[in-house]
Specification:
Strand 3 and strand 4 form a beta hairpin. The longest helix is centred in the C-terminal third of the chain and has 11 residues. It is built from ten helices and 16 strands. The relative contact order is 0.10. It is elongated, with a radius of gyration of 22 Å. By secondary structure, the protein is α+β, with helices and mostly antiparallel strands. The strands form three sheets. Strands 11-13-12-14-15-16 form a six-stranded mixed beta sheet. The protein has a five-stranded antiparallel beta sheet with strand order 1-2-3-4-5. Strands 6-7-8-9-10 form a five-stranded antiparallel beta sheet. It folds into two domains: 93 residues, DNA Primase, Chain A (Alpha-Beta Complex); 198 residues, Dna Topoisomerase Vi A Subunit, Chain: A, domain 2 (3-Layer(aba) Sandwich).
């Protein structure tokens, strides 16, 4: 569908490159909340809309019907679409080509994880590592964390990576990440061969909707664990969000409504970019830390930060 052609045909007033709307969208006035500042974004590629003010989202026909009261038959003729997709799933399927969600079929080396032993109480280096971070041993044991003592991942805790919506015992292992606990390794984190971290999301428990229905986006595994008692925390394995990670996060919009971007204090530009990309799907805010990262600021993360809503 040629979105611009449809808007021009029905004489819809729109703007491009709106400073407060995704650059992937045309901006129009919202007929649902009455905003006239063109904060209702229409995705150029798919035609689906999302208002940055009131949060309304759906298909282009629903929007045009509200603005111009046009008929479905007239819309079909101009747009060339065959059917109307108004569910969240339909909207997301239209925006993100499912090919972009396919992870290359490279075999992942699971041996280091499967042959390692579950973490045991009393191991000196592990106890010191956990105590310094105020992490309760039984939490890691419940998460399936293992202690590797031999080979490439020696002296590392191995954290399993599952699909965020898969809840134990039905969780499907997608990979793992090894975190050094000695403090002397050249690299804090190691990944197994074949595992492309930038195509995955790390969550601690499986995404269970709470009363707040909130997700917290952080950089690393330890940040996610530190924020686990503040909401459903997801780690991106870095300061940037890949397109595949974005697409996977939007699927969670069927279960969650709020999202906080909480990156390290030196990554505010990255946080703003993420917030703008995620704003069509969630009520997004940025938690800008005064210093450090969520792991080091665990108990002070909200008292020593600034909450930003407009980006």
């Amino acid at each position: 569908m040629n979105t611009q052609k449809v808007l021009d045909y029905f004489h819809i007033d729109y703007v491009t490159n709106h400073p407060e709307v995704s650059n992937k969208c045309f901006g129009v006035s919202c007929p649902f909340c009455g905003d006239t500042g063109k904060h209702c974004g229409i995705f150029i590629d798919s035609g689906n809309y999302s208002c940055w003010k009131c949060g309304k989202k759906g298909g282009l026909y629903k929007l045009l019907k509200q603005i111009k009261h046009i008929s479905w038959d007239e819309f079909k003729t101009v747009s060339g679409v065959r059917e109307q997709k108004e569910t969240v799933k339909g909207t997301l399927d239209s925006i993100f080509d499912r090919k972009s969600l396919r992870i290359e079929d490279n075999p992942i080396e699971f041996d280091s994880y499967t042959k390692s032993q579950p973490i045991m109480e009393g191991e000196k280096d592990v106890v010191k590592f956990l105590r310094y971070r105020s992490i309760v041993f039984r939490e890691l044991k419940t998460m399936g964390v293992r202690n590797c003592k031999h080979g490439k991942f020696s002296q590392r805790l191995l954290f399993p990576v599952y699909h965020p919506l898969h809840i134990a015992p039905d969780r499907s292992l997608q990979g793992f990440v090894g975190r050094d606990y000695t403090g002397i390794a050249e690299k804090k984190y190691l990944f197994p061969a074949g595992f492309k971290a930038h195509e995955h999301l790390y969550s601690t428990w499986g995404m269970i909707p709470t009363v707040e229905r909130k997700i917290i986006i952080v950089e690393g595994v330890m940040d996610a664990i530190a924020m686990g008692d503040r909401g459903n925390a997801i780690a991106l394995f870095g300061k940037n969000m890949s397109f595949t990670q974005l697409a996977k996060l939007t699927v969670l919009a069927e279960h969650f409504t709020k999202l906080e971007v909480m990156l390290d204090s030196d990554a505010f530009p990255n946080a703003r970019m993420m917030a703008r990309d995620l704003a069509p799907f969630f009520s997004v805010s940025i938690i800008q830390l005064e210093k450090g990262d969520p792991e080091s600021m665990r108990d002070k993360v909200y008292s020593k930060s600034r909450k930003i809503i407009g980006f």
